[in-house]
Design goal:
By secondary structure, the protein is an alpha/beta fold. The protein has one domain: Peptidyl-tRNA hydrolase (Rossmann fold). The chain is built from 6 helices and 7 strands; from the N terminus they run E-H-E-E-E-H-E-E-H-E-H-H-H. It has a 7-stranded mixed beta sheet with strand order 2-3-4-1-5-7-6, sandwiched between helices. A hairpin with a 2-residue loop joins strand 3 and strand 4. Helix 1 packs across helix 5, helix 2 packs across helix 3 and helix 5 packs antiparallel against helix 6. It is globular and about 45 Å long. One of its GO terms (cellular component) is cytoplasm.
Length: about 200
């Protein structure tokens, strides 16, 4: 890998393709990725890696924004293909995803760790051959009552949640930018203090 790293970053938004999934909790990563692309005037284009991608800059950093076009549980191969194509070191891969074990509206940042039952992360870890990539975890909270978590993540955000969603998506996009421009610990200090 040494000598191959371009110094660029790869930011991946996870979700499921198709209109029927557009407003679901599982597509939080897509929402954040789209917000970043809009902020930076980056036009996502179809890439041979079964993903949409755009190159842009965050401050001095070169960044590739990517949104997989595969279903969540097979996110890994498109992520690994984008990483290889743009010559990004796995330590500079940032995956934005929904997280059941974080309260709705909270954003948490970390490097590495397990997949916590998230099939998208499991697939990415397998395809990259490492867990040591960065994660921006978008809190969606736990399902009510005895609802199956698999059903909960594929449901649309509730009306009250949808009112807050644009603000929360913006905050998660801010967290991605802080990760790239400031580093993990300063970004954690800033965003983990927020609910």
């Amino acid at each position: 890998m040494a000598g191959e790293d371009s110094g660029a970053w790869l930011v991946i938004g996870l979700g499921n393709p198709g209109a029927e999934y557009a407003g679901t909790r599982h597509n939080a990563g897509y929402l954040v990725l789209d917000a970043l692309a809009e902020r930076h005037g980056a036009r996502l284009r179809s890439h041979k890696a079964r993903a949409d991608a755009a190159q842009t800059r965050l401050g001095p950093a070169s960044v590739v924004l990517g949104r997989t076009r595969s279903y969540m549980n097979v996110s890994g191969p498109p992520v690994a293909s984008l990483r290889a194509f743009f010559k990004v070191d796995p330590s500079r891969v940032i995956v934005v995803h929904d997280e059941l074990d974080i309260p709705f509206g909270a954003v948490r940042l970390k490097r590495g760790g397990g997949d916590n039952g998230h099939n998208g992360l499991r697939s990415i870890t397998s395809s990259l051959g490492t867990r040591e990539y960065l994660r921006v975890r978008f809190g969606i909270g736990r399902p009510p009552g005895r609802m199956d978590p698999a059903d909960f993540v594929l449901r649309d955000f509730a009306p009250a949640e949808r009112k807050e969603l644009p603000f929360l998506v913006d905050r998660a996009a801010d967290a991605v930018e802080a990760l790239v421009t400031e580093g993990l610990e300063p970004a954690q200090n800033r965003f983990h203090a927020l609910v």
